[in-house]
Design goal:
Helix 11 runs parallel beside helix 14 and helix 13 packs across helix 14. The protein has two domains: 131 residues, Aspartate Aminotransferase, domain 1, CATH 3.90.1150.10; 225 residues, Type I PLP-dependent aspartate aminotransferase-like (Major domain) (Aspartate Aminotransferase, domain 2, 3-Layer(aba) Sandwich). The longest helix has 22 residues. It has 388 residues and is α/β, with parallel strands linked by helices. The protein binds pyridoxal-5'-phosphate. The site of pyridoxal-5'-phosphate has 13 residues, from helix 4.
Length: 388
């Protein structure tokens, strides 16, 4: 079927964080272009599956079936050519809870956990809130390329038994790490007898010309030291269903993780489980169409920001999130966040919240109908014109 992503769907009063919480944070007039979900309907086979499940009136405790584990393994093989045994698959009600559990499983209070800044803010939270220390490998940023890794610094910071939380593809900035980059990170961690926890939630939101490689698939040695977090939530726009999975080949790491996840973390709810399987098995038609639409939106952001004074943009290789380099603009406005919220009336994520290296950047979510995106970009253009 042909999906209509141009259709504007009113999400107000649905409890949407992007729209309803956004109205409280940015003001009712601001167009919310922040939290990473899409303003598009979910794939029809997923909606049909949920309706079918609700035809059964009993909604009791439910556990993932073997068919869901097989669906996860099958999708990794189909999309990435990665051989996964269904027995390696565990389920969690989200990638962020998985990151929490991984830090609990593989480190002790006071231990250092290696992350690359700027990064998705919960990477900092899962470390700080469990009394561990964030060890930062700062990414550098170059217009026209995006983030780069300081490999020498990374290697120097890798201690014995090091836990490394990787974001791949990277949020923010949307880099799809290359084989060489992934190898340069995996090598020192494996050598130190450490563990890589790879958050690959954005792995199917990759634009043409780029290819995501699961870090665990690089070699058997790396696979044996890696915990991979995957989910249908970003790919198929079903984040409200709180469903995700982990792929852990090494039985010892899997056992440690299972122990940590038994501490009061609930399983995935039955609708989440059902939608997860339907999305992985029957979501491809929707996914192909949404990627084509998102790529056009990404290109529109690049074209429009191309001549905006004070803003530079490097098109993301993956994700539906543009990382706007507003450092020049920041030098001429008192408060960047306030400029976008109050003057331009668009609600974006302030780069500061992504940690060191995020200052002077703003993150814009372009997963919305093109007319809405054009409106948001127009508001930014108008606010810039009023300034000069
Ligand atoms: C890199 C990354 N990890 C995890 C999440 C959230 O995952 P979940 O909703 O499954 O906890 C996001 C959402 O934006 C993300 O960008």
């Amino acid at each position: 079927m042909r999906y209509d992503f141009d259709r504007v769907i009113d999400r107000h009063r649905t409890g949407s964080i992007k729209w309803d919480t956004g109205a409280r944070i940015f003001g009712a007039e601001a167009l919310p272009m922040w939290v990473a979900d899409m303003d598009f309907p979910a794939p029809e086979p997923v909606l049909a599956d949920l309706r079918r499940r609700l035809d059964h009136p009993v909604l009791g405790y439910t556990r993932p079936g073997v068919s869901l584990k097989a669906a996860v393994a099958g999708r990794m093989k189909k999309v990435f050519g990665w051989e996964v045994d269904p027995d390696w698959v565990l389920f969690m009600p989200g990638v962020v809870p998985s990151l929490y559990a991984a830090v609990a499983a593989f480190t002790q209070p006071g231990d250092g956990v290696l992350i690359q800044s700027p990064v998705y803010p919960p990477f900092f939270d899962v470390i700080r809130e469990q009394s561990r220390e964030a060890v930062l490998n700062r990414l550098s940023y170059e217009t026209g390329h995006g983030h780069r890794i300081d490999t020498r610094d990374f290697t120097a910071k890798c201690r014995k038994g090091q836990l490394f939380l990787l974001c791949s593809p990277h949020n923010p900035g949307g880099r799809v790490w290359t084989r060489e980059e992934l190898t340069s990170m995996a090598g020192p961690v494996v050598e130190a007898g450490g563990v890589i926890v790879s958050d690959e939630i954005h792995h199917e939101l990759v634009f043409s010309g780029h290819r995501h490689i699961p870090i665990a698939a690089l070699s058997p040695e790396i696979g044996a030291r890696t915990v991979t977090c995957v989910a249908p939530s970003k790919t198929f726009n079903i984040a409200g269903l709180s469903a995700s999975a982990l792929i852990i080949e090494n039985p010892r790491l899997r056992a440690s993780f299972k122990k940590a996840m038994n501490h009061g973390i609930p399983g995935v709810n039955l609708l989440g489980l059902s939608a997860f399987e339907a999305a992985y098995l029957y979501g491809d038609e929707w996914h192909a169409q949404v990627m084509a639409y998102l790529e056009e939106n990404r290109n529109l952001v690049s074209r429009e920001t191309g001549d905006m004074a004070g803003i530079e943009e490097t098109p993301p290789e993956a994700t539906f999130l543009s990382w706007l380099d507003c450092r020049q603009l920041a030098a001429s406005v008192k408060d960047l966040d306030n400029f976008f919220t109050k003057k331009a009336r668009v609600g974006l994520n302030d780069g500061k919240s992504f940690g060191p290296g995020g200052e002077g950047f703003m993150r814009l979510n372009f997963a919305c109908p093109r007319s809405v995106l054009a409106q948001g970009l127009g508001r930014i253009r108008d606010a810039l014109a009023l300034r000069s």
